[in-house]
Amino acid sequence: MAAPVLEVEDLEVDFATEDGVVHAVGGISLSVAPGRMLGIVGESGSGKSVSMLTVMGLTRAENATISGSARLEGRDILTLPTDELRAIRGNDIAMIFQDPLSSLHPLYKVGWQLVEAIQTHQDVSKSAARARAIELLQMVGIPDPKGRVDNYPHEFSGGMRQRAMIAMALTNDPKVLIADEPTTALDVTVQAQILDLIARLQQERDMAVVLITHDLGVVAEHADEIAVMYAGKVVERGPATVIFDAPEHPYTWGLLRSIPRLDRTRGEPLVPIPGRPPSLIALPGGCSFNPRCPYVLDRHRRVEPELEPVNDQNDHSVACLLQPSTRRQLWAELREGKLPETARESVALKDTV
Amino acid sequence: MVRYIIRRLLWVVVLLFLVSFITFLIFYALPSADPATLRAGRSPNPQLVEQIRHNLGLDKSLPHQYFDYMKRLVLHFDFGYSYQNNISVKQQILDRLPASISVAIGSAIVFLITGIGVGIISAIRRRSLLDRATMGLSLVSISAPVYWLGLVSLYLFASDIGKFPVPFLKGAGSYVPFSQDPSIWFQSLLLPWFVLAASFSALYARLLRANLIETMSEDYIRTARAKGLSERRVVFRHGVRSAINPIVTAAGLDLGVLLGGTILVETVFNIPGIGRLAYDSIQNSDLPMIQGTVLIGALFIIVANLIVDIMYAFLDPRVRYS
User: Fold this and answer.
1) A106 touches chain B (CB under 8 A)
2) Which of B124, B211, B215, B223 to mutate to test the interface with A (most CBs of A within 10 A)?
3) What does the buried/exposed string (b/e) look like for B249-274 if buried means 16 or more CB atoms within 10 Å of the residue's CB?
4) Which of A91, A99, A107 is opposite residue B241, by nearest beta carbon?
5) In whole angstroms, what is the distance from residue B175 CA to residue B256 CA?
6) Residue contact B317–A99, C-beta within 8 A
7) How would residue B287 be classed by pLDDT, with cut points 50, 70 and 90?
8) Does residue B4 carry a pLDDT above 90?
């Protein structure tokens, strides 16, 4: 596998607010190689968007404390001066967002916005930029790009707007594309089209993609690696196939059991994860997931788990205090469709020590 | 769009009719000083008063008077003649219009530049000392009555009576038409412009600041930053472009109001504009003149409204009229 193009290490992001310090991202490490797709999965408030916005330099503010590093082709972009960062943003690293209608400027034509993106980083004439804009719209599958280039965003459909956003992000052939919930605001049928488009462009351009989503189903088909985030931390990380077949973290199990799957028995109930994500101002002691974990033991409330490799597999790691053997038993039970409580009983989880 | 404009123009006519009717009712039908008596001199005899009353048509019934007035207005664009000095109302208004336009346009330029400038700076430097200072000052200038501000500014800075006279700030009554002497025209209007603009610019600064702060947290601003644009371009081309729309609307309407004459400023600075004319006519119960100034003021406001509505379709492509 090629060397990673984007490497995030020990990224921490805190925001000082009136209510206290929000620990939005609590030291995460991620990397993605050219031509690969990394899926970051987690609930709202798990820090997945904030971490990537920080990589883009979009969370720089007086009340934000950022530490760690994010190296784009070996160069740390977290500490770059703003004007140097600007030359990279939208050029080497680009981002698309959740709601394409509110993410496009409502008062400018789509073509104008594309031309602006082109001319910001390339010294080309307006007419050349416009020709390139039409080409880009064509590339992302917008019908009649010559006519559509002069439309306003509100004249586009939801899927077309997101295609336009993708076109705008790809104007300068970025090495990394960050897609922040790109399909959440779209119809289900359009979602698949947009994901296929992103995957196709990723292949064609040997581009690294970071796909942020709260829906494991979205990353299932295209992601190569998956990082599951909870309360500002990566709790499990590994190749997509492993995450789906042999997940190790109770939170990942919860996510998997809460989405419908065709390979499951019909009529088997979906099991939601009880409770809500913790406040990022006052995180629970020990494992952050302990208040919602069905398999919590007393010790888990005191000791903070580290992200550690599962067995000897270097590419799969998990931050869980349960014994590896216990985890495997629990997942085996859950896999058969048992409810978490039943699984806990049959494994006879007891506080030792 | 064309149909929309035609429909709106028809409404302009209806509204002007309504305005004329209401002002007629207020000034003719409600008791005020008898215009005939006022014109008859110091010790009028009853025959003379009757004669004047007849000449002015005041002895006819009210509906008849209104009908006569409207007939002349609609057929000949004739506003009648002043009770005070028999000058044609239309002529008088046309004579006074340049002064009012000078005051209105000049102060609009002042309040747009200062309002927009201060609004943008305090929005992007939010919570800074500058922001707090200008927002505090703006509260003061919104609260200060314009006649008070006018008198104070004359007292302090006017070149003739000021305590700290500034040579190029001419005092009250120094107005000359632009065609006569542009330099004096300008100097005589500087104080009125700023005095009239004070509360407007403060309002606009606060409005734009609030709008811009809200706009800067929009998703498309984040997109603009993610594109790698300079912060300057993000603020002006993306932020201000959106936040300015309500300002343009408000400015259009305010300008319409000001063009119809600014009674207080024109009176304080003794500028012979429509406002001053209206003030004098009210003092003299000069009904045709009052009617004329009210109608011309209403016309400006209604037309400004129409222009603003049409302009909005160009400012915001999402707005379409049908």
Assistant:
1) yes
2) B223
3) bbbbebbbebbbbbbbbbbbbebbbb
4) A107
5) 22
6) no
7) confident
8) no
Cα A39 from Cα A26, distance rounded (Å): 18
pLDDT digits (tens, 9 = 90+) for B15-28: 988 998 898 888 77
DSSP A51-100: HHHHHTTTT--TTEEEEEEEEETTEE-SSS-HHHHHHHBTTTEEEE-S-H
Closest to A319 measured CA to CA, from A310, A328, A331 = A310
Does the global pTM surpass 0.80?
yes
Residues A100-112, mean pLDDT to the nearest whole number: 95
Taking Cα atoms as reference points, which of B61, B60, B54 lies closest to residue B40? B54
What are B143-148's contacts with CB under 8 Å, separation 24+? B144/B198, B144/B199, B146/B195, B146/B196, B146/B198, B146/B199, B146/B264, B146/B265, B146/B268, B147/B264, B147/B265, B147/B267, B147/B268
CB A149 within 8 A of CB A137: yes
| pLDDT tier at B196, thresholds 50, 70, 90 | very high
**Chain B residues with at least one Cβ partner in A under 8 Å:** 218-220, 222-231, 237-238, 241-242, 315-318
Tokens representing residue A166 in the block: 């993708």
Q: What pLDDT shows up at residue B94?
A: 93
Token pair, residue B179, equals 């065609």
* Bridge partners for A209 per DSSP: A37, A177
Q: What are phi and psi of B7, to 5 degrees?
A: -60, -40
Going by their DSSP bridges, the two strands A176-180 and A225-230 should be labelled as unpaired
CA distance linking residue A161 with residue A151, whole number of Å: 11
| Number of other CB atoms surrounding residue A258 within 10 Å | 13
The tens digit of pLDDT for each residue in A227-270 reads: 999 999 999 999 999 999 999 999 999 998 888 777 767 777 78
What is the three-class DSSP state of A352?
coil
Residue with tokens 């610019």: B201
Long-range contacts, B231-235 (Cβ 8 Å, 24+): B231/A82, B235/B120, B235/B124
Mean pLDDT of B63-82: 86
Q: Which two tokens stand for residue B29?
A: 């039908």
